[in-house]
Amino acid sequence: MSGRREEILDAAVAIADERGVDAVSMRALADRVGVTPMALYRHVKDKAALLDGMVGRLLTALLPADPAEEHTWDERLRALAHAARKVTQQHPWAAHLLFSRPAVTPDGLRAVDIIYTALIEAGVPEPQVPRLERLISTFVIGFAASEASGRFTPGAEDPRGRRGRPDDGELPGHRALGPWLDLPLDLTAEFEADLADITRLVEAVARYEE
């Protein structure tokens, strides 16, 4: 990546951090880097390419610092998942962008390839690898998006926060789980437990297909 293109993508990420991803436009970006909008097209051909570049810029943070360092397949998956959660905590708008655009830049493809090679090493049959990659990516980004948006925090409209209001027969599942729903929510512990479940799922698919 050229230094100028890198500067442009950094500026686009900064605008999104300040005002949200919808505020990122070619004109706003040109003002930020001090050029005319037409000058940007030498480095990003259009708004779609800019957004793809921003996805790639975010996914750079998911790549291992030392690719040659030896780790087991499950360690690589967990490291990638933790890095994705951290990126979304730093850039709350990132989850929506990652959900809405495919990974087409070199860095994006490398991040996906980490999952592919980990699943192959785990013994997952190759025809099943793309499906499991989509499942894992959707979980990680979805968890991060829900955490960033506050969806996991009970609010005024969340049935967990108003269980006493409906008739007992309306929410039998909530009534049965009341003691557990009232526990303090530790999202980090929940994320770790979910990753452990995903590891067991991968191992189960590998065993089933043997």
TrEMBL record:
The keyword Transcription applies. It comes from the Bacteria. Residues 150-173 are annotated as: Disordered. InterPro entries: Homeodomain-like_sf, HTH-type_TetR-like_transc_reg, HTH_TetR, Repressor_TetR_C, Tet_transcr_reg_TetR-rel_C_sf. Keywords: DNA-binding, Transcription, Transcription regulation. Residues 157-173 have a biased composition (Basic and acidic residues). GO terms for biological process: negative regulation of DNA-templated transcription. One of its GO terms (molecular function) is transcription cis-regulatory region binding. Residues 25-44 bind DNA. Residues 2-62 form the HTH tetR-type domain. The keyword Transcription applies. This is TetR/AcrR family transcriptional regulator.
